[in-house]
Amino acid sequence: MTRPLVVLGATGSIGTQTLEVADNLGLHVAALAARRPSEALAHLGHRYPEAVVIAAGGSSQERDDLARKLGRQPRFGSEAVLEAAGAENRIVVNGIVGAAGLRATIAGLQAGNRVALANKESLVAGGPVVRAMLEEHGGELVPVDSEHSALHQCLAGEPAESVARLILTASGGPFRGRPRESLLSVTPDEALRHPTWDMGRRITVDSATMFNKGLEIVETHFLFEIGYDRIDVVVHPQSIVHSAVEFVDGSWKAHMGHPDMRIPIQYALTAPDRSATPGDPFSLAGVTLTFEEPDRSVFPAIDIAYAAGRAGGSAPAVMNAADEMAVEAFLQGRLGFLAIAEVVQRTLDEFEWRELKTVEDVLEVDSEARSMAAGLIAGVC
Ligand code: MG
Description:
The chain has 16 helices and eleven strands. By secondary structure, it is α/β, with parallel strands linked by helices. The strands form two sheets. The chain has a seven-stranded parallel β-sheet with strand order 4-3-2-1-5-6-7, sandwiched between helices. A four-stranded mixed β-sheet has the order 9-8-10-11, covered by helices on one side.
Protein backbone atom coordinates (compact mmCIF):
# COMPACT_ATOMS: atom_id res chain seq x y z
CA MET A 1 0.00 0.00 0.00
CA THR A 2 1.90 3.03 1.13
CA ARG A 3 5.49 3.76 0.25
CA PRO A 4 8.51 3.14 2.52
CA LEU A 5 8.87 5.66 5.33
CA VAL A 6 11.73 8.00 6.06
CA VAL A 7 11.33 9.17 9.66
CA LEU A 8 13.23 12.36 10.45
CA GLY A 9 13.40 13.28 14.12
CA ALA A 10 12.87 9.60 14.85
CA THR A 11 13.64 9.75 18.57
CA GLY A 12 11.38 12.76 19.23
CA SER A 13 7.71 12.89 20.16
CA ILE A 14 6.40 12.81 16.57
CA GLY A 15 9.02 10.26 15.49
CA THR A 16 8.26 7.71 18.19
CA GLN A 17 4.51 8.01 17.63
CA THR A 18 5.04 7.68 13.86
CA LEU A 19 6.91 4.42 14.43
CA GLU A 20 4.06 3.12 16.60
CA VAL A 21 1.65 3.89 13.75
CA ALA A 22 4.02 2.36 11.19
CA ASP A 23 4.26 -0.87 13.22
CA ASN A 24 0.51 -1.06 13.54
CA LEU A 25 0.03 -0.56 9.80
CA GLY A 26 2.91 -2.87 8.93
CA LEU A 27 4.75 -0.16 6.97
CA HIS A 28 8.35 -0.50 5.89
CA VAL A 29 10.71 1.93 7.60
CA ALA A 30 13.51 2.73 5.14
CA ALA A 31 15.43 5.33 7.14
CA LEU A 32 15.58 6.76 10.66
CA ALA A 33 17.28 10.04 11.38
CA ALA A 34 17.91 11.94 14.59
CA ARG A 35 20.03 14.91 15.52
CA ARG A 36 22.15 13.05 18.08
CA PRO A 37 23.76 9.59 17.89
CA SER A 38 21.96 8.66 21.11
CA GLU A 39 21.16 5.45 22.94
CA ALA A 40 17.55 5.89 21.78
CA LEU A 41 18.63 6.01 18.14
CA ALA A 42 20.70 2.83 18.60
CA HIS A 43 17.59 1.14 20.07
CA LEU A 44 15.53 2.13 17.06
CA GLY A 45 18.28 0.82 14.80
CA HIS A 46 17.86 -2.58 16.45
CA ARG A 47 14.09 -2.44 16.20
CA TYR A 48 14.35 -1.76 12.45
CA PRO A 49 17.33 -3.82 11.30
CA GLU A 50 16.75 -2.96 7.64
CA ALA A 51 16.56 0.80 8.14
CA VAL A 52 19.39 3.17 7.32
CA VAL A 53 20.27 4.91 10.60
CA ILE A 54 21.39 8.53 10.38
CA ALA A 55 22.71 10.91 13.01
CA ALA A 56 22.92 14.51 11.83
CA GLY A 57 25.27 15.66 14.58
CA GLY A 58 27.31 14.35 17.49
CA SER A 59 31.00 14.13 18.43
CA SER A 60 33.26 11.53 16.82
CA GLN A 61 33.23 9.62 20.12
CA GLU A 62 29.41 9.53 20.13
CA ARG A 63 29.40 8.50 16.48
CA ASP A 64 31.80 5.63 17.15
CA ASP A 65 29.62 4.53 20.07
CA LEU A 66 26.54 4.47 17.86
CA ALA A 67 28.30 2.40 15.19
CA ARG A 68 29.47 -0.08 17.82
CA LYS A 69 26.04 -0.40 19.52
CA LEU A 70 24.30 -0.71 16.18
CA GLY A 71 26.57 -3.41 14.79
CA ARG A 72 26.25 -1.89 11.32
CA GLN A 73 27.44 1.32 9.72
CA PRO A 74 25.24 4.35 10.45
CA ARG A 75 25.39 7.43 8.28
CA PHE A 76 26.37 10.85 9.59
CA GLY A 77 25.78 14.50 8.83
CA SER A 78 22.91 16.61 7.52
CA GLU A 79 23.73 15.68 3.91
CA ALA A 80 22.82 12.08 4.72
CA VAL A 81 19.49 13.29 6.14
CA LEU A 82 18.75 15.20 2.94
CA GLU A 83 19.71 12.21 0.81
CA ALA A 84 17.24 10.03 2.72
CA ALA A 85 14.49 12.66 2.34
CA GLY A 86 15.28 12.96 -1.37
CA ALA A 87 15.26 9.21 -2.13
CA GLU A 88 12.57 8.41 -4.67
CA ASN A 89 9.14 7.05 -3.90
CA ARG A 90 9.13 7.71 -0.16
CA ILE A 91 6.86 9.16 2.46
CA VAL A 92 9.04 11.52 4.45
CA VAL A 93 7.81 12.22 7.97
CA ASN A 94 9.50 15.46 8.89
CA GLY A 95 9.55 15.66 12.69
CA ILE A 96 12.80 17.63 12.81
CA VAL A 97 12.69 20.41 15.38
CA GLY A 98 13.97 23.75 14.14
CA ALA A 99 15.04 25.45 10.95
CA ALA A 100 17.11 22.41 9.84
CA GLY A 101 13.76 20.83 8.94
CA LEU A 102 13.25 23.23 6.04
CA ARG A 103 16.00 21.70 3.88
CA ALA A 104 14.55 18.24 4.49
CA THR A 105 11.09 19.38 3.40
CA ILE A 106 12.57 20.90 0.24
CA ALA A 107 14.62 17.75 -0.49
CA GLY A 108 11.50 15.58 -0.08
CA LEU A 109 9.35 17.75 -2.33
CA GLN A 110 12.07 18.06 -4.94
CA ALA A 111 12.06 14.28 -5.28
CA GLY A 112 8.26 14.35 -5.71
CA ASN A 113 7.72 12.63 -2.36
CA ARG A 114 4.90 13.02 0.07
CA VAL A 115 6.16 15.05 3.01
CA ALA A 116 4.14 14.44 6.18
CA LEU A 117 4.94 17.72 7.80
CA ALA A 118 5.40 18.16 11.55
CA ASN A 119 8.27 20.65 11.23
CA LYS A 120 6.74 24.08 11.81
CA GLU A 121 9.69 26.05 10.49
CA SER A 122 9.19 24.70 6.97
CA LEU A 123 6.03 26.75 6.52
CA VAL A 124 6.31 29.41 9.22
CA ALA A 125 9.82 30.49 8.25
CA GLY A 126 10.09 29.08 4.74
CA GLY A 127 6.49 29.37 3.52
CA PRO A 128 7.21 31.35 0.31
CA VAL A 129 10.09 29.02 -0.63
CA VAL A 130 8.16 25.82 0.09
CA ARG A 131 5.15 27.04 -1.90
CA ALA A 132 7.38 27.85 -4.88
CA MET A 133 8.94 24.39 -4.59
CA LEU A 134 5.50 22.71 -4.59
CA GLU A 135 4.49 24.59 -7.71
CA GLU A 136 7.74 23.77 -9.49
CA HIS A 137 8.28 20.11 -8.55
CA GLY A 138 4.93 18.76 -7.45
CA GLY A 139 5.42 16.53 -4.47
CA GLU A 140 2.81 16.56 -1.78
CA LEU A 141 2.63 18.30 1.55
CA VAL A 142 0.32 16.62 4.07
CA PRO A 143 0.05 18.17 7.53
CA VAL A 144 0.65 16.12 10.67
CA ASP A 145 -0.34 18.82 13.14
CA SER A 146 -3.81 17.97 14.49
CA GLU A 147 -5.41 21.31 13.53
CA HIS A 148 -4.09 21.31 9.98
CA SER A 149 -4.88 17.65 9.53
CA ALA A 150 -8.44 18.48 10.63
CA LEU A 151 -8.67 21.33 8.11
CA HIS A 152 -7.14 19.18 5.38
CA GLN A 153 -9.80 16.52 6.01
CA CYS A 154 -12.69 19.02 6.20
CA LEU A 155 -11.53 20.62 2.94
CA ALA A 156 -11.22 17.32 1.02
CA GLY A 157 -13.40 17.47 -2.09
CA GLU A 158 -14.45 21.10 -1.50
CA PRO A 159 -13.63 23.71 -4.16
CA ALA A 160 -11.75 26.78 -2.87
CA GLU A 161 -14.62 29.13 -3.70
CA SER A 162 -16.93 27.24 -1.31
CA VAL A 163 -14.77 28.06 1.68
CA ALA A 164 -15.63 31.08 3.80
CA ARG A 165 -13.35 30.70 6.81
CA LEU A 166 -10.96 28.29 8.48
CA ILE A 167 -11.34 28.09 12.25
CA LEU A 168 -8.36 26.85 14.23
CA THR A 169 -9.14 25.52 17.67
CA ALA A 170 -6.74 26.10 20.55
CA SER A 171 -6.73 24.36 23.92
CA GLY A 172 -5.80 27.64 25.57
CA GLY A 173 -2.96 25.90 27.41
CA PRO A 174 -2.46 25.61 31.17
CA PHE A 175 -2.94 29.35 31.82
CA ARG A 176 -6.32 29.83 30.16
CA GLY A 177 -8.54 32.13 32.20
CA ARG A 178 -5.71 33.47 34.36
CA PRO A 179 -5.23 37.23 34.73
CA ARG A 180 -2.07 38.65 33.17
CA GLU A 181 -0.42 39.62 36.50
CA SER A 182 -0.64 36.04 37.74
CA LEU A 183 1.59 34.91 34.87
CA LEU A 184 4.53 37.10 35.88
CA SER A 185 6.07 34.44 38.06
CA VAL A 186 5.06 31.14 36.44
CA THR A 187 7.78 28.48 36.30
CA PRO A 188 8.85 26.22 33.42
CA ASP A 189 7.28 23.27 35.28
CA GLU A 190 3.89 24.96 35.36
CA ALA A 191 4.14 25.89 31.67
CA LEU A 192 5.11 22.33 30.76
CA ARG A 193 1.92 20.88 32.25
CA HIS A 194 -0.34 20.78 29.21
CA PRO A 195 -3.96 19.88 29.99
CA THR A 196 -4.80 17.75 26.95
CA TRP A 197 -1.87 17.07 24.60
CA ASP A 198 1.38 15.25 25.28
CA MET A 199 4.03 17.00 23.19
CA GLY A 200 7.65 18.19 23.05
CA ARG A 201 8.96 20.91 25.39
CA ARG A 202 9.06 23.91 23.07
CA ILE A 203 5.59 23.29 21.67
CA THR A 204 4.19 22.85 25.18
CA VAL A 205 5.53 26.24 26.30
CA ASP A 206 4.31 27.63 22.96
CA SER A 207 0.84 26.36 23.87
CA ALA A 208 1.03 28.17 27.20
CA THR A 209 1.93 31.50 25.52
CA MET A 210 -0.35 30.68 22.53
CA PHE A 211 2.58 31.25 20.16
CA ASN A 212 1.88 27.72 19.02
CA LYS A 213 -1.46 28.94 17.68
CA GLY A 214 0.29 31.98 16.22
CA LEU A 215 2.68 29.75 14.29
CA GLU A 216 -0.26 27.60 13.19
CA ILE A 217 -2.07 30.66 11.79
CA VAL A 218 0.90 31.25 9.48
CA GLU A 219 1.11 27.55 8.58
CA THR A 220 -2.60 27.57 7.73
CA HIS A 221 -2.06 30.52 5.40
CA PHE A 222 0.69 28.75 3.46
CA LEU A 223 -0.78 25.24 3.51
CA PHE A 224 -4.23 26.19 2.24
CA GLU A 225 -3.32 29.44 0.44
CA ILE A 226 -5.93 31.44 2.28
CA GLY A 227 -5.82 35.08 3.42
CA TYR A 228 -5.28 35.97 7.09
CA ASP A 229 -8.66 37.67 7.32
CA ARG A 230 -10.27 34.28 6.65
CA ILE A 231 -8.40 32.43 9.41
CA ASP A 232 -9.89 32.54 12.91
CA VAL A 233 -8.91 31.13 16.28
CA VAL A 234 -11.29 29.87 18.94
CA VAL A 235 -10.33 28.45 22.32
CA HIS A 236 -11.73 24.98 22.93
CA PRO A 237 -10.28 23.56 26.16
CA GLN A 238 -11.37 19.94 25.64
CA SER A 239 -9.31 19.53 22.42
CA ILE A 240 -12.01 17.30 20.91
CA VAL A 241 -12.83 19.51 17.91
CA HIS A 242 -9.48 19.78 16.16
CA SER A 243 -10.53 22.60 13.81
CA ALA A 244 -13.42 23.54 11.55
CA VAL A 245 -14.29 25.00 8.18
CA GLU A 246 -17.15 27.42 7.52
CA PHE A 247 -18.54 27.30 3.98
CA VAL A 248 -20.19 30.09 2.01
CA ASP A 249 -23.65 28.49 2.41
CA GLY A 250 -23.39 28.71 6.20
CA SER A 251 -22.56 25.03 6.65
CA TRP A 252 -19.75 24.03 8.96
CA LYS A 253 -17.60 20.93 9.00
CA ALA A 254 -15.69 20.22 12.17
CA HIS A 255 -13.21 17.41 12.74
CA MET A 256 -13.51 15.56 16.05
CA GLY A 257 -11.89 12.74 17.94
CA HIS A 258 -9.55 11.78 20.76
CA PRO A 259 -6.70 14.24 21.29
CA ASP A 260 -4.16 11.65 20.17
CA MET A 261 -1.39 12.62 17.74
CA ARG A 262 -1.23 9.09 16.34
CA ILE A 263 -4.53 9.73 14.53
CA PRO A 264 -3.37 12.71 12.42
CA ILE A 265 0.04 11.06 11.96
CA GLN A 266 -1.65 7.97 10.56
CA TYR A 267 -3.88 10.01 8.26
CA ALA A 268 -0.83 11.82 6.89
CA LEU A 269 0.60 8.40 5.94
CA THR A 270 -2.56 6.83 4.50
CA ALA A 271 -4.47 9.85 3.06
CA PRO A 272 -6.85 9.91 1.34
CA ASP A 273 -7.43 6.36 2.58
CA ARG A 274 -8.07 5.43 6.18
CA SER A 275 -6.98 2.44 8.22
CA ALA A 276 -8.39 1.06 11.45
CA THR A 277 -6.59 2.03 14.67
CA PRO A 278 -6.38 0.12 17.94
CA GLY A 279 -7.59 1.74 21.16
CA ASP A 280 -10.89 2.91 22.60
CA PRO A 281 -13.34 4.35 20.14
CA PHE A 282 -14.33 7.96 20.80
CA SER A 283 -17.82 8.65 22.07
CA LEU A 284 -19.69 11.94 22.31
CA ALA A 285 -22.02 10.77 25.07
CA GLY A 286 -21.35 12.66 28.27
CA VAL A 287 -18.84 14.99 26.58
CA THR A 288 -19.29 18.75 27.02
CA LEU A 289 -17.69 20.93 24.38
CA THR A 290 -17.09 24.61 25.10
CA PHE A 291 -15.70 27.41 22.95
CA GLU A 292 -14.56 30.92 23.80
CA GLU A 293 -12.63 33.84 22.35
CA PRO A 294 -8.92 33.90 23.17
CA ASP A 295 -8.01 36.66 25.66
CA ARG A 296 -5.72 38.74 23.48
CA SER A 297 -4.58 40.98 26.33
CA VAL A 298 -3.18 37.96 28.20
CA PHE A 299 -1.96 36.19 25.06
CA PRO A 300 -0.50 38.82 22.70
CA ALA A 301 1.04 36.02 20.59
CA ILE A 302 -2.13 35.77 18.48
CA ASP A 303 -2.03 39.40 17.35
CA ILE A 304 1.74 39.32 16.92
CA ALA A 305 1.33 36.33 14.59
CA TYR A 306 -1.42 37.94 12.50
CA ALA A 307 0.72 41.05 12.07
CA ALA A 308 3.84 39.05 11.20
CA GLY A 309 1.84 36.90 8.77
CA ARG A 310 0.38 39.93 7.01
CA ALA A 311 3.80 41.59 6.84
CA GLY A 312 5.01 38.41 5.12
CA GLY A 313 8.58 38.03 3.83
CA SER A 314 11.00 37.64 6.69
CA ALA A 315 8.55 38.55 9.47
CA PRO A 316 7.14 35.07 10.28
CA ALA A 317 10.67 33.61 10.20
CA VAL A 318 11.82 36.30 12.63
CA MET A 319 8.85 35.61 14.92
CA ASN A 320 9.62 31.91 14.96
CA ALA A 321 13.34 32.30 15.61
CA ALA A 322 12.85 34.88 18.37
CA ASP A 323 10.20 32.73 20.01
CA GLU A 324 12.42 29.66 20.00
CA MET A 325 15.24 31.62 21.66
CA ALA A 326 12.89 33.15 24.21
CA VAL A 327 11.32 29.78 25.08
CA GLU A 328 14.77 28.27 25.57
CA ALA A 329 15.75 31.15 27.87
CA PHE A 330 12.48 30.73 29.78
CA LEU A 331 13.08 27.00 30.23
CA GLN A 332 16.57 27.77 31.55
CA GLY A 333 15.12 30.26 34.03
CA ARG A 334 16.77 33.23 32.28
CA LEU A 335 13.55 34.90 31.10
CA GLY A 336 10.13 35.48 32.61
CA PHE A 337 7.06 33.94 31.01
CA LEU A 338 5.48 37.23 29.90
CA ALA A 339 8.82 38.43 28.52
CA ILE A 340 8.67 35.73 25.82
CA ALA A 341 6.14 37.75 23.80
CA GLU A 342 8.03 40.97 24.53
CA VAL A 343 11.25 39.53 23.13
CA VAL A 344 9.43 38.34 20.00
CA GLN A 345 7.74 41.71 19.45
CA ARG A 346 10.96 43.66 19.96
CA THR A 347 12.89 41.40 17.60
CA LEU A 348 10.20 41.92 14.96
CA ASP A 349 10.34 45.69 15.52
CA GLU A 350 14.10 45.87 15.17
CA PHE A 351 14.64 43.39 12.35
CA GLU A 352 14.87 44.94 8.91
CA TRP A 353 12.13 43.35 6.76
CA ARG A 354 13.21 41.55 3.62
CA GLU A 355 11.85 39.18 1.01
CA LEU A 356 12.55 35.45 1.13
CA LYS A 357 13.40 33.85 -2.21
CA THR A 358 15.72 30.96 -1.37
CA VAL A 359 16.38 28.51 1.43
CA GLU A 360 19.58 30.46 2.11
CA ASP A 361 17.55 33.66 2.60
CA VAL A 362 15.38 31.86 5.15
CA LEU A 363 18.31 30.37 7.06
CA GLU A 364 20.10 33.73 7.07
CA VAL A 365 17.07 35.48 8.53
CA ASP A 366 16.66 32.67 11.04
CA SER A 367 20.21 32.96 12.28
CA GLU A 368 20.25 36.77 12.35
CA ALA A 369 16.95 36.89 14.23
CA ARG A 370 18.31 34.37 16.73
CA SER A 371 21.36 36.53 17.45
CA MET A 372 19.20 39.61 17.76
CA ALA A 373 16.80 37.87 20.14
CA ALA A 374 19.72 36.49 22.18
CA GLY A 375 21.04 40.04 22.54
CA LEU A 376 17.63 41.31 23.65
CA ILE A 377 17.26 38.45 26.13
CA ALA A 378 20.71 39.18 27.59
CA GLY A 379 19.65 42.81 27.96
CA VAL A 380 16.42 41.86 29.76
CA CYS A 381 18.18 39.67 32.36
MG1 MG B 1 -1.35 21.88 16.82
